[in-house]
Write a structure and sequence with these properties.
Order of helices and strands: EHEHEHEHEHEHEHEHEHEHEHEH
Strand content: 15-25%
Bound molecules: 3-phosphoglyceric acid
CATH architecture of the largest domain: 3-Layer(aba) Sandwich
Number of helices: 12
Distance between the termini: 24 Å
Shape: elongated
């Protein structure tokens, strides 16, 4: 059995060592395709793979067509919008993610970006503090919960919106549940995005919501660029010179936004939220273990294309 790790943005070496150990101890072989620059390389490497571990790498029909012996794809991470689930199902391949394994890393980056924004990107001018500010968490999943935990250390007042999470679970975390997006954006000086990219959420955060934010608002996006309506966001930033936008997911209009809004915006050049050795180890090893559990025992606990 061959397990292919195909990562355009590689895991830390220590995580690869851990993945290799799990795979080899199960009597399987590991092949590594890192920093590949063309899809052709992926198509060739996947041709005889039984299992595939990816990160944000695009796994579409063409990949499934090329992968004639593939049985399972594990997205080592949370969001699986990069994997064509319908194509996987049509090819008889199961798809899994590794929920929660990289969530602390992403949550910590939220605060790295927030402090940077609140301190004017360390340009020597007087900034502001996070203490006693309001924070709205847009989706209270694993990352959102870690964001809430860290926010308390900063002394922030935290609210969250999540129609899929019962109020009791939000309250139990010491967070105020809110029930409309309008309320979330209008009541919180800082809003942190944690919604997945789905047909419902794509382009769902734009002019109307961002314009509702209180004076000096900061929107931080460590989720997906697709959830933002970029022209709408640009209009809001134009209309409201007090608002800032920081994102771990470079927008399509990044250059235009940087030119027009200067230090009010900041974008990482590559998605960095989960790029820690700890997150790589957690997610990578979980992915390897899930593959072994599926190929050996048919365990489908984390399957997302059911
Ligand atoms: C995720 O969905 O798990 C995060 O966005 C991390 O993505 P990455 O593995 O491409 O860094």
């Amino acid at each position: 059995m061959k397990v292919l790790v195909a990562t355009e943005k590689p895991f830390a070496a220590v995580a690869v060592d851990g993945i290799r150990k799990v795979v080899e101890e199960a009597g399987m072989t590991l092949e590594l395709l890192e920093k590949y620059t063309s899809k052709q390389q992926l198509l060739e490497a996947v041709a005889d793979a039984d299992a595939l571990i990816v990160r944000s790498d695009k796994v579409d029909t063409e990949v499934f067509d090329a992968a004639r012996t593939l049985k399972i794809v594990v997205r080592a991470g949370a969001g699986y919008d990069n994997v064509d689930l319908a194509a996987a199902t049509a090819h008889g391949v199961i798809v899994e993610n590794t929920p929660g394994q990289n969530s602390n890393a992403v949550a910590e980056l939220v605060f790295g970006m927030l402090v940077m924004a609140a301190r004017n990107q360390y340009d020597g001018t007087s900034g502001s503090e996070l203490k006693e500010k309001t924070l709205g968490i847009h989706a209270f999943g694993q990352v959102g919960r870690n964001v809430a935990r860290i926010a308390k250390g900063f002394g922030m007042t935290v609210s969250a919106l999540d129609p899929f999470c019962p109020d009791e679970a939000i309250t139990a975390a010491g967070v105020k549940p809110v029930h409309s997006v309008e309320q979330l954006y209008s009541e919180n000086k800082v809003v942190s995005l944690h919604i997945p990219a789905t047909t419902e959420t794509r382009g769902s955060v734009g002019f109307d919501l961002v314009s509702l934010m209180p004076s000096g608002g900061i929107l931080v996006n460590t989720a997906r660029k697709e959830v933002i309506d970029e022209p709408g966001l640009i209009r809001a930033l134009e209309a409201r010179p007090d608002i800032r936008y920081v994102a771990d997911v470079r927008p399509d209009a990044a250059d235009e936004m940087t030119e027009r809004f200067g230090k009010r915006v900041f974008f990482t050049p590559k998605k960095m939220g989960a790029q820690t050795s700890e997150a790589n180890i957690n997610a990578g090893i979980a992915a390897a273990r899930q593959i072994v559990a599926y190929l050996r025992e048919g365990d489908t606990k984390y399957q997302v294309n059911k």
